[in-house]
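hi! just following up on the protien thing from before. the input was this:
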Amino acid sequence: MIRNLLLGMVGLMLTCCSSEGEAVAATPAKVAAERGKTLVAYYSYTGNCRSIVAELKKQLDADVLEITPADKTQKYEANGYAIGTQLLSAISDNPTDEGSYPEIDAVATDVAEYENVVIVTPLWWSQMAAIMQTYLFRVGPTLAGKHVALIVSSASSGIDGVVADAERLAPNAVWMGEPLWINNSNRSKAGTLLAEWLPTLDFKQKAEIMEMNVTVDGRTLTASLADTEAARTLHAALQQAPLTYEARDYGGFEKVGSLGRSLPTSDVRLTTTVGDIMLYSGNQAVIFYGSNTWEYTPLGRIENISAEELKTFLGAGQGNKSITFSAPTPTSVKSVQKAAASKAASYTTSGVRATANARGIQITNGKKTINK
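and the predicted 3d structure came back as:
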């Protein structure tokens, strides 16, 4: 569980003093190169969160995504915050219904490509701003296993309600540290607060690139494996031996079959797309040539393939098929070296190739030489 960050946290970075005696970071807090890819997602109504993100970008190597409402004419604070309260009440009344959340502009950034996500949100009446709640409601399932951090901006209200909203909307995220609370009393020190906070976060390192071959009827495609315990367990097993199982069509959108062994589960409710490989019920592999919404544990994905191409590959509609998962075969070439330049051959004046120690007049590359 993530908890409120106490103001006046002890700085964990080495510091030195400026001429005015102000403590400043001895080294920049840029994320080390070995850390995984990071996304900062934020919503800002008054501009406070936007300013926080601008300062954060100076200290953190990350992509930035701004969440914006579809209706940009609403004044949430008008009439005693009537509209804002109405939006929050609709969510509270039915938090599992997508229709309860206000519409936001389409988001092109795919959270799946990031190991770490930092959420920056304002507080509305002790809750997370409704616009950011919409975003987290939609991406929450894909945050499973991601390392997530939270920054909350408020005037003076405490952030317990925002923390609770975050945990509800992303229940399977790995919270990588205490949330950072920036309010009117410490906003002028946002840069220092961020510099002290960032080193306390447990950023996920770059994920190991794991792949496996998928073979059906002698044809093979390569799948990238997911960053889940199930995928890592499968990857380790394939290093020892291939795994072949019998798969059947189901529902007109998938090929599914028992692996003959169980893998660790971390099920989340997902809507699959073409090429997804999922673990179902702990021991069944599902390869999707269509889409379905259910609770699965991600295993991997076959990229850059159309539904029709994947149907043909899997023999969709042709009955049961044997599918083999295997480790990609490593190349036998360990290194490539530039070939040494061959010494040009020399010939005698009669056109006979000269031996290495031959004396007399020789012709090499069209030029006469005399070896004594």
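DSSP finds seven helices and 21 strands in the chain.
The chain has three domains: 15-200, 211-326, 345-372.
cheers
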